[in-house]
Automatic annotation (TrEMBL):
<keyword id="KW-0720">Serine protease</keyword>
<dbReference type="InterPro" id="IPR001375">
    <property type="entry name" value="Peptidase_S9_cat"/>
</dbReference>
<comment type="similarity">
    <text>Belongs to the peptidase S9A family.</text>
</comment>
<keyword id="KW-0378">Hydrolase</keyword>
<dbReference type="InterPro" id="IPR029058">
    <property type="entry name" value="AB_hydrolase_fold"/>
</dbReference>
<feature type="domain" description="Peptidase S9A N-terminal">
    <location>
        <begin position="11"/>
        <end position="419"/>
    </location>
</feature>
<feature type="compositionally biased region" description="Low complexity">
    <location>
        <begin position="1"/>
        <end position="13"/>
    </location>
</feature>
<protein>
    <submittedName>
        <fullName>Oligopeptidase B</fullName>
    </submittedName>
</protein>
<feature type="domain" description="Peptidase S9 prolyl oligopeptidase catalytic">
    <location>
        <begin position="484"/>
        <end position="699"/>
    </location>
</feature>
<dbReference type="InterPro" id="IPR023302">
    <property type="entry name" value="Pept_S9A_N"/>
</dbReference>
<keyword id="KW-0645">Protease</keyword>
<dbReference type="InterPro" id="IPR051543">
    <property type="entry name" value="Serine_Peptidase_S9A"/>
</dbReference>
<feature type="region of interest" description="Disordered">
    <location>
        <begin position="1"/>
        <end position="23"/>
    </location>
</feature>
<dbReference type="Pfam" id="PF00326">
    <property type="entry name" value="Peptidase_S9"/>
</dbReference>
<dbReference type="InterPro" id="IPR002470">
    <property type="entry name" value="Peptidase_S9A"/>
</dbReference>
<dbReference type="Pfam" id="PF02897">
    <property type="entry name" value="Peptidase_S9_N"/>
</dbReference>
Amino acid sequence: MAAVTTETAPPAAKRVPSERTHHGDTVVDEFAWLAAKDDPETIAYLTAENEYTDARTAHLADLRADLFEETRRRTQETDLSVPTRKGGHWYYTRTVEGQQYGVQCRRAVRDGETDPPVSADGAPLDGEEVLLDGNLLAEGHDFFSLGAFDVSPDGRWLAYSTDFSGDERFTLRVKDLTTGELLPDEVPDTFYGTAWSTDASVLFYVTVDDAWRPNRVWRHTIGSAAADDVVVHQEDDERFWVGVELTRSEKFILIDVHSKVTSEVLVIPAGNPTGAPAVIAPRRQGVEYTVEHHGHRFLILHNDGAEDFALAFTSADLPGDWVPLIEHTPGTRLEAVDAFANHLVVSLRTDGLTGLRVLPVGSDDGYDIDFPEPLYSVGLDANPEYRTGQVRLRYSSLITPDSVYDYDLVTRQMVLLKQKPVLPGPDGRPYDPAEYEQHRDWALADDGTRVPISLVCRVGTPRDGSAPCELYGYGSYEASMDPWFSVARLSLLDRGVVFAVAHIRGGGELGRRWYDQGKLLAKKNTFTDFVACARHLVKAGWTASDRLVARGASAGGLLMGAVANLAPDAFTGIVAQVPFVDALTSILDPSLPLTVTEWEEWGNPLEDPEVYAYMKSYTPYENVAAVDYPAILAVTSLNDTRVLYSEPAKWIARLRAVAPGGDYLLKTEMGAGHGGPSGRYDSWREEAFINAWILDRIGHA
């Protein structure tokens, strides 16, 4: 454990004992007062923590500036995304050097134009129409985020929503794209998700309840007051949340009702938006399904008797029995189906890698698309056109920058439209992927399970334990940490750092069973898997424990806190971003955002004493001990709705109280949410701050 060597002392968190009792167990929480967000003492304490962190990292100012500049120089700041066709327009986003946010644009499709237009160096396209300029919208605000961005089927209206605090409570507005004027229609406190009726006279949207659970779908008639809006569906079961979307065919409005393990889908004909929603299949506990419209049928992706999901269909006129299309194959997890007029494209994963399967309509000649690298991530990009013979793909790997392809579903030809430019770094040398190498390795968990690890490093990085390493992990909600490219990461790789991702249980990399073995009363597998990966990297010579930094965010921040308690000797530093480290306190409080919907992920400790005891045995805040911890950097945001700022604030305070002398830092963004700073330059600075801290821990500052 690194000792605090600066004369600057950390702020003193007052200790005000607060008791709670569950299942006969009384817990004293001395730092519960930090949850009072509106208390001036709380704000003063967080401000003092930021000042302390600034002082403790002041010696890294030049390195932070270097890292930021390296990211900026390698990024083509004025750029333009590959335009996507929808109806009579090409839609795209532009970024401009010096500006934080994107500019949403479109340009009319010209006679005979089939290929997306391009521009030199990201310049505006000739004939461009600016729909929204995020920089203008963000003026006067420290934070800005778009929730909805939804153009009506006729191209006339734009529904969009904005958040200026980071709490993900959006104000919905409608813009007339023919005049550029905003309609008086304005709806506050909306959630993600909108859907238009066929004639664009009606807009559907979602709102949340007091616990920030999306529970209502509303119908809004364009030109009317929000007070006249009608609730189309209200979900009263607190385990479930709702969403709304228009099918690609533009024939149906889908209302998705989902808990962690059960789902139900309702449909409304988009041509009859005032019609009553009809249920595709009533919810059955433990059965999940999603719906995609395709001609005379609804496609059903489901897990009814199919752990890794199967694909079926039912009549669109009279939904009933499910007719199989793709039978269940253990180990091949079907994740989504996208329907086009003459083809279906199934997104899947097998052996820890993503993939795409094409099913021509009326033919048994289905096939999987091949990709060249041993490690990669691929998925469908925006594909709004239903009647098309090609689809847009997005592909990347640990060494291949984000790449956009058009894939011809008939000829099976794949054309690269754009690869994200990586400009020369400070040394003037262009990026060359041949200078880097990626690997797949496997660790052996305590119970004998093989856990995959993805790694990337510069060619020639030694395998004698001398190389430093950053090990990233998540491991919850069946979310997979598929290989991704990062410009900012190049600054670490070029300094000799190995970057590794632990694909631990609780994620979805190896199918539904991989997820099930890392949740509820098997959650500790997530933590022991990560420690096993750390031990393996040392044993295999990739790094040494005093050269290894762990990093995770959100539920991955819970992972960071748990492994700090479980194996503090395995790491020299830990970065925990928006960390869910006070999980038991949060999951015991059903009034908090997301708590009730989370019970099917973690268990319900309010009602089940076994769950209570199990969670208490691993939640980081509950298990801080008088041991030598690695250096810890906790990063959070004051307006985070998903993981409250108070969790890392309390955690750091308890670490200092129980294990004094350690190097514990707390950095709070005072005007942001779960994703941290919203502007791209601010995000680069945040990443430079974290990477500078990591380099300092491994002696490369």
